[in-house]
TrEMBL record:
Residues 23-156 form the Nudix hydrolase domain. Pfam families: NUDIX. The keyword Hydrolase applies. It comes from Planococcus salinus. One of its GO terms (molecular function) is metal ion binding. Gene3D superfamilies: Nucleoside Triphosphate Pyrophosphohydrolase. CDD domains: NUDIX_CoAse_Nudt7 (cd03426). The keyword Hydrolase applies. Keywords: Hydrolase, Magnesium, Manganese, Metal-binding. This is CoA pyrophosphatase. Its cofactor is Mg(2+); Mn(2+).
Amino acid sequence: MDSKSIIDKGKKRTPEILGNENFSKYAVLLPLIEKEDGVHVLFEVRSYELRKQPGEICFPGGRIDPEDKTEEDTALRETIEELGIRRENISSVFPLDYIVSPFGMMVYSFAGFIDSDVEFVPNPPEVDSIFTVPLNFFLEEEPRVYRINFEVQPEESFPYDLIVGGENYNWRTRKVDEYFYIYEDKVIWGLTAKILSHFIEVIR
């Protein structure tokens, strides 16, 4: 292969996250609603019939389908399906940072406003209930942060003889911070709380 073909190939590509084709990709919307006492954040309680994370608190969202033109389209489609509203009920949508989780998942998040007079019809197979929390609560309340440490455990056949240090190799361990917000009897944690904390940083 000559230098020109290498340069041509290199210049034509757009860099992405290495290995991202193997990631599960999702998109969520952080819904905001203007109420009499100010802006509120809307949350869903996941159906208790769901196989994954039943009863947990989350934002509307789901897996990106091949038919979705953009990540934002996914977030809006899922919000419409889960809350039983129409596209015209959602406005002023803007992107937040996306998350690459240590568990092979990419989450694209957006924030946007939902009409204050809309009538919600939550989809029972996915959504048990919905509730809102005043935005001021999150502006005034810092999240509780707890660290999770992951241990390195190579498989039995790992070739220690091929690396410097062998079995005594000094592995870099992974650490993940888990965020928690406690509002009345509601526990908002995990990726939902992390996205929420990031959103608060953005609007501050």
